[in-house]
Amino acid sequence: MPRHRSLTLKKFITAINDTDPGLVERYFLQLIPKEKLPPYLMIMHYDYVRHLLEGLEDERLRGTIYEDLRRINDIGEKAMGTLVRTTKRFGIETNQNEKPQALAMRLFLDHPEAFDYAWAWYCYYYSTSKISQHRIDCQGFSIDVDKLDAFKEEVRSFFSDLAKGEECRVSHYEEDNEVVILVAHGSYIRTVARWEGREIKIESFRPAYEDILLYDKTRSLLCIKATLDKDREQYIKSFTNAILANPALAESPNRDKVYTLRPLQDGTFSWDGNEHITSIIPLEARLKLRGSTEPVVEIRSKDLRRTFEDDLEGLDLASGELVYMKFRFTIEVEDKVEKITFIIAPPDVTDLAKKKHADIISAYLKENGVQLI
Q: Phi then psi for 239, rounded to 5 degrees?
């Protein structure tokens, strides 16, 4: 799941109150009866909220509140584009003076389906996990409630058999050419010791994780954001079996052949760029060298091509099997210059899909034989 940005409670509450002072009150009243709240004046300002949270004896409730506020704040601070996209999709009116934190809170309170949609895209673009991509050819793709229920049951059973709990929630959103599936599931129970006054208390809990599947119907490409390889493999099996009704697609020999770094080694890759790509610099590489001990060399520098030419005599990108590369592309579009850093680990892993100007870079990689689909 995405890593939370630090929640600056004062900034967050102030931003919401600057737009609509009633939103914070509405949030807390849906969780705590008004008669159990400490008295407050016209609005729930920052100091009131801070003291309220510090005084809550119900730790589960306090944890739920902080998790809600972090999610709302994450989308508001980092994903304004996602908020705009969401309001347009769901026909939600906006105010040009509305702070993004307030808009995110309003979606959370009044349009939960829209908020879940925004959160699904936030998980896809801002998760810490890499995205694997897989060729899953399907003509006449369709999805319905029965297929989703079958998919959910297969995934739930998989995590349950691994002792990761029975809890599993699946939601999906369909665009013109894309289908997004968000899977929330449990993990292994963790036990921590903490101080409560002068005593040490033992607390056990089951962490929650959120994985994303995105199916690009135009390219017949299944993109998966999940932490573990075995989870990704199960998602592919369940997707092809329950949703596509063709489990054989999971066994296709070309399923994972999406990227290759061979053009960087055989000299066919152009480092010159084009009208939009003004600079291409390799920053990191991982090479499997030939030898009885199967050595692996990892190299990082400000510019690997210069490093090989000036500082590493006898070693270059063709010295072994190139299994990982980190790039920095400089993109110039509409007189704006931006540097985009991403990785490729063949045959199917990248984080390019989450980056700005991914379409420009992807087209260039395909033209130069690095991207195969």
A: -65, -50
pLDDT for the residue numbered 2: 56
Give me the sign of the Cα torsion angle 196, 198, 204, 209.
positive
Q: In sequence order, which residues have a C-beta less than 8 Å from that of residue 241 and are 6 or more positions away?
A: 154, 247, 250
Q: What is the pLDDT of residue 39?
A: 86
Return the pLDDT at 205: 64
Task: Find out whether the peptide bond into 33 is cis, omega within 30 degrees of 0.
Answer: no
- DSSP letter at 11 equals H
Please state the domain extents for the chain: 9-126, 131-251, 262-367
Instruction: Look at residue 274 in the predicted model and tell me its pLDDT.
Output: 96
Is the full-model pTM beyond 0.70?
yes
pLDDT value for 5 = 57
pLDDT of residue 73: 94
Helices 100-110 and 80-90, packing angle to 10 deg: 40
Is residue 227 within 8 Å of residue 207, measured between CB atoms? no
CA-to-CA distance for 285 and 345, rounded, in angstroms?
Answer: 10
Q: What burial class does residue 97 get, using C-beta atoms within 10 Å of its C-beta: 0-12 exposed, 13-18 middle, 19+ buried?
A: exposed
pLDDT in tens, 99-137: 999 999 999 999 999 999 999 888 888 877 778 999 998
Q: Under a CB-based contact definition with an 8 Å cutoff, are residues 63 and 203 in contact?
A: no
Q: Low-confidence residues of the chain, pLDDT below 50? A: none
Strands of 221-225's sheet, edge to edge? 168-174, 178-186, 208-216, 221-225, 131-135, 349-350, 336-345, 320-333, 277-289, 296-300
- Give the Cα separation of 301 and 356 in Å (integer): 23
d(CA 139, CA 244): 10
Distance of CA 35 to the CA centre of its chain: 40
The pLDDT assigned to 188 comes to 78
